[in-house]
Amino acid sequence: xxxxxxxSKQYDNKVVLDNISLEINKGEIxxxxxxxGSGKTTLLNIILGLTKMDKGRIIFDNENLxxxxxxxxxxxxxxxxxxxxxxxxxxxxxxxxxxxxxGLVTEEELKEYINFLxxxxxxxxxxxxxxxxxxxxxxxxxxxxxxPKLLLLDEPLSALDGVIKESIKERIKSIxxxxxxxxxxxxxxxxxxxxLSDKILIINQGSISQFGTPHEIIHQPKNExxxxxxxxxxxxxxxxxxxxxxxxxx
Length: 250
Hints:
This protein has helices at about 40-50, 70-75, 90-95, 105-115, 130-145, 160-180, 190-195, 215-220, 225-235, 240-245; strands at about 1-10, 15-25, 30-35, 55-60, 65, 75-80, 150-155, 185, 200-205, 205-210. The protein has a single domain (about 1-75, about 150-250), classed as P-loop containing nucleotide triphosphate hydrolases (Rossmann fold, 3-Layer(aba) Sandwich). Helix 5 (about 130-145) runs parallel beside helix 6 (about 160-180). The radius of gyration is 18 Å and the shape is globular. It has a six-stranded mixed β-sheet, sandwiched between helices. By secondary structure, it is α/β, with parallel strands linked by helices.
């Protein structure tokens, strides 16, 4: 379990995060949802250990990680632009992090990750030869082989469209279920959050507006901001809302 306790952060006297507290269970997919500048990426970076908070605690599996360095937390992130090495082929990108972690995964485990993400036909391809969905799967494989305790995804679907986006959604769900891997996703898209997550944290101006399941957020919005942000401001497709949550919100 991941516990965030009273996380706060300021930049130049501007409050970016204000007293964020929540608990995320093992194997859950949780989306951090909010407008640009709401504080969601800052919160992701604090969990990762990339950004230092001003106040609060991070507890993971009963261990206090508040002052633990990023490299020692055992969390891994897939960045929005994938951050793949263009001079290496897909396979070498996947195993790059294992150079200094010999013995972390067996050959069989490595094959399992590659087959799970259906990357075997693409291993010898250059990064420039891969589609957006294939690049995303390579980035996911590179992260999974490091056996992260927590998977962090920064706007993982923003560069994808249509069938490819739906495919990656299913991959992320399958990864969380197959490996019981707690997954935290930053997104600005309510539709992505509602169709991908077990729970959603909606952040507005650095504070929690609501934390709950997609069903709770749609049927029991805690305030006008949640209702407006989800149903009006970003104009989610009517048919998806109808399909997921019923005629009342279609």
